[in-house]
Structures are given as structure tokens and as C-alpha cells.
Specification:
There is one protein chain. This protein has 243 residues and is α+β, with helices and mostly antiparallel strands. It has helices at 2-21, 28-72, and strands spanning 82-92, 100-103, 116-118, 123-130, 135-139, 149-154, 159-168, 173-179, 190-193, 205-214, 221-227, 236-242. The protein has a 6-stranded antiparallel β-barrel with strand order 1-2-5-4-3-12. Strands 6-7-8-11-10-9 form a 6-stranded antiparallel barrel. Strand 1 and strand 2 form a beta hairpin. The protein is globular.
């Protein structure tokens, strides 16, 4: 064992002597391994940064595509174009409970007629009268036969349009008509505002489909929609103001 140790020391001494004499870096293998390892780590770090940049690019491209599609389809009333003003319901018409409400915000808060009003759960109605500090909201449950809202049903590969034009207060059901009878629509599909008509921005959730049936002329479907908003107990709302 001692002989092996002595020979190893002699070998190390000779290697060191030759390296110093010929100006050779005996630690080159160490640095070679070190550079190789840290190069891999550095490359990984650069890849992560690249992914972040790619993600930013994807998001930017998506924003551009949304704007392009809005222009292409003449849609300029999506939810991203609006800010929200919070308000409290301060009065209800006891004779026509599902027709109108009064909120505690008006022109002093930037509110105008025909602005959309939403609850925390979905569409509530639109502004019909405004004073300095209060506004009247016509609910989507109103019995006004002229109060119609264009709606859409988003399917996996299609978008179906219809007209919301009535409310059954006994069963808490909104009535959607003029729906293409040829298209199969799954029960429990969600119903949204379509953005057509110039009052309600597109994409406000209204409720989900509960039942479907043919109209009396068998030309289209009538859809019963269960609203998400609790019209009896809602106290706080948001008014959507265009940016």
C-alpha cells in the first residue's frame, strides 16, 4: 500500500512539474466540465425567458384578433369596452314588482339612458330614466311587450341567436323565441346577450336553458331560460359605462 501511495505521489509531482514547465493548465478538465454544466443551465434559463416572450406575443396576437373580429362582424359592444359604476337599489314598484327598480346613482355619476345594468349573477335590465342622483331601471322581467333583447347561445361549433321577449313570473322563466328549429341545443346551455341592438354589450350571462319546445306554427323553437339573477333579493348592481 505504501509503495502504491509513493508511486501516486511521484506521478502527481511529475504531472505538476511538466504542466508548470510547459505552461499547461492542469485544471482544464475541471473547467471544461464546469462550463459544460453551466452552459446547460444557462440555456435552460434562456429558454424560460423565451417562453415568457412567446406568451406575451400570443396574448398580443389574441388581442389583435379580437379587435379584427369585432370590426369584421361589426361588433363594438363587448364587455371589455365598459367600466362599472356600483349602485344600490333604493326603491321598487310594489304594484309592478318585476318591472322597474330605482338605484341611487344618476347623471352625477356619468349614468345615461339605455345603459346596461347587471347584478353579481348576470343581466338585470337597462336605464330608462335618469336624474342627478337616481336612475330608473327597466328589468328584463318586465311585462312590457316592446322590451326585447337579442340573445345568443354558445355551442361548441356554432352560435345560435334568438329574441328574449317575455317572462313567466309564476315559474321564474324568461322566454326566448325565433330560435332555429333545425339546430340541436343541449339542455342547460348558457344564454348570453348578443351585443346586437346597440344597448347591451355582448357576453353578459343571462341564465341557462331549462326547457325547449316548438312554436305553434312549427317554424322555430321557444326556449325557456332560468335566469341566474335573483330578482327578488338583489340589492346591489353595476351600471356599465362605455370607456
Amino acid at each position: 500500500m505504501r509503495v502504491k501511495t509513493f508511486l501516486l505521489l511521484i506521478l502527481i509531482y511529475l504531472i505538476s512539474f511538466i504542466a508548470i514547465r510547459n505552461n499547461i493548465n492542469i485544471f482544464a478538465p475541471y473547467y471544461l466540465i464546469k462550463d459544460f454544466v453551466f452552459l446547460g443551465v444557462s440555456a435552460i434559463g434562456e429558454e424560460v425567458k423565451l417562453d415568457d416572450k412567446v406568451q406575451e406575443g400570443i396574448e398580443l396576437e389574441l388581442r389583435h384578433e379580437i379587435e379584427e373580429l369585432k370590426k369584421l362582424n361589426d361588433i363594438d359592444t363587448t364587455l371589455t369596452d365598459f367600466t362599472k359604476v356600483s349602485a344600490t337599489i333604493i326603491e321598487r314598484n310594489k304594484m309592478y314588482w318585476f318591472n322597474t327598480i330605482t338605484i341611487n346613482k344618476g347623471t352625477n355619476s356619468g349614468i345615461k339612458e339605455d345603459m346596461a345594468v347587471i347584478s353579481k349573477d348576470g343581466l338585470l335590465g337597462r336605464i330608462t330614466k335618469v336624474s342627478k342622483n337616481t336612475s330608473e331601471v327597466k328589468l328584463i322581467t318586465t311585462n312590457d311587450v316592446n322590451h326585447k333583447i337579442s340573445v345568443m347561445i354558445k355551442l361548441e361549433n356554432d352560435t345560435i341567436y334568438g329574441i328574449m321577449s317575455g317572462y313567466d313570473s309564476n315559474n321564474n322563466i324568461l322566454i326566448v323565441t325565433s330560435v332555429n328549429k333545425e339546430i340541436e341545443i343541449p339542455k342547460d346551455s348558457f344564454v348570453y346577450t348578443s351585443g346586437m341592438g346597440g344597448i347591451f354589450p355582448s357576453g353578459i350571462i343571462i341564465g341557462k336553458i331549462k326547457e325547449m319546445k316548438k312554436d305553434k306554427y312549427d317554424t322555430s323553437k321557444i326556449i325557456e331560460v332560468e335566469p341566474f339573477t335573483d330578482f327578488n333579493n338583489t340589492r346591489f348592481v353595476n351600471v356599465l359605462i362605455r370607456k
